[in-house]
Amino acid sequence: MTGNLVAIVGRPNVGKSTLFNRLTAGRTAIVEKVPGITRDRLYGLVEWRDRQFTLVDTGGITFEREEPLAHQVHRQAEMAIAEAEIILLLLDAREGLNPLDEEIASFLRRSGKEIIPVANKIDTQDDRQLKYIFFSLGLGEPHPISSAHGRGIGDLLDAIYDLLPEQGDPIYPPDSIKVAIIGRPNVGKSSLVNTVLGEERVIVSEEPGTTREAVDSRFQYKDRDYILIDTAGVRRKSQVKEKVEYYGVLRSLGAVDRSDIALLLLDGPEGVTEQDVKLAGYIDRAGKGLVLVVNKWDLIDQRGETRRELKERLRSKIAFAGYAPVAFISALTGYHVKELFPIIDRIWGQQRKRLPTSWLNQLISDAVLMTPPPTVKGRRLKIYYATQPRVAPPTFVLFVNEPRLMHFSYLRYLENRLREGFEYYGTPVRFVIKKRSRKGEWW
């Protein structure tokens, strides 16, 4: 990750995610009154006084090294501190000075980074006196704020602005390919991200549901910029009991919506489940590029099952997404992981392909001549003209005599002819049927 980085750190439940959402003017991080909600590093873009910086939210630091997950959260916070230019040490003014605050402050001083102490939960003017207890940390005057109500946020942003370097690269180049990795819990999404990045970018645990946020990671491969979005596992709606997991599922689906291409990760040994089919349907309806990624192929290979057999079973269950390529990988060993990128690049190009109108109309004309539309109560559908107004997903408008005569099966036939002629690999296509206002046929 490049650019000006500002990390929010502190002990659990002091309001880091609330401040992150306030500064990024969004609802990217999950906010609940439960300690330890944020576990991975979470990035967002902040703009203030014509300058941009990257804000990093981190999990609460506890120094409880005996607890494996707490240890990994601590490591994620260490990584955020190492890559940041400025650190916001968030403190809970209502609870006052905590021994853990002092331990974290001592740890931060050794980092040699610019540190801004921030006294949170100062909701009224009378509460401002609560900040003075934090002078003993030796980090300078704390900035009083209320991340929940927005008090003091402008002054805090001014303080960050004054410490920012003059120049900073934009967080994401405009031509970056945004790739969401989605799937059920524990299918290997975070392992795939870590294998691609070659670092412990997100926490990997055998405990399902470890990833709760949609975590963005920027990287380059063969001079191409990508944004990998690791998401929370999406279980069946009936199995989602906790409010936090519910919000995590919403973030995962939102990650699909803001992505260009989704990698639907499937558990190879377990096979395709009903939930996998539903997720594929969501991606298709969202109009995103889709790759069906069969993970743990090394375990399937030991059973002697062939790719063809597995692909046929997969295709039969997700028949509506016949355009989606199937990739076989092992996120754990790295087997064929690099082969995903030529697939992603190809889909990216196919999503943005625009057909000349003459080519499109010639294809539709030939398709109609080969197989005329069926009649409905003595009336036959007539297609007068076709055009492509949009890309990503490729969208085609058909002007007809009567839209109600267009049967879905004939529309599927036209889609198949379109793909035979111009491919549209890995991307759904959309048809809009409109009634033509004036008489006459074009063919």
Short synopsis of the structure:
The protein is an alpha/beta fold. The protein is built from twelve helices and 17 strands. The chain has three domains: about 5-165, P-loop containing nucleotide triphosphate hydrolases (Rossmann fold); about 175-350, Rossmann fold (3-Layer(aba) Sandwich), CATH 3.40.50; about 355-435, GMP Synthetase, Chain A, domain 3.
| Number of separate strands | 17
Count of discrete structural domains: 3
Largest sheet: 6 strands, mixed
Number of helices: 12
CATH level 1 class label of the largest domain? Alpha Beta
In N-to-C order, the SSE pattern is: EHEEHEHEEHEHEEHEHEHHEHHEEEEHE
Our measurement of the CA-to-CA distance between the termini, rounded to an integer number of angstroms, reads 55 Å
CATH topology tier name of the largest domain: Rossmann fold
The Rg value, from CA coordinates, equals 26 Å
Annotated CATH architecture of the largest domain: 3-Layer(aba) Sandwich
**Major sheet strand order:** 2-3-1-4-5-6
CATH superfamily name of the largest domain?
P-loop containing nucleotide triphosphate hydrolases
- Quickly give the structural class: alpha/beta
The fraction of residues assigned to DSSP E strands is 15-25%
What is the overall silhouette?
elongated
Mean pLDDT: 82
Q: In percent, how helical is the residue content?
A: 25-40%
